[in-house]
Predict the structure.
Amino acid sequence: MLTGIIVLAIAAVVGITGSIVSVARDGFHAIPTKTYTRWS
């Protein structure tokens, strides 16, 4: 039981961190393009 719960918890943490990283990457890419388009 505990091993299954631990595996699920690890999978959830990995999924959450992965989604946050992907969103952060999109945000970092979107912010410079927005500023560049504004200045140019």
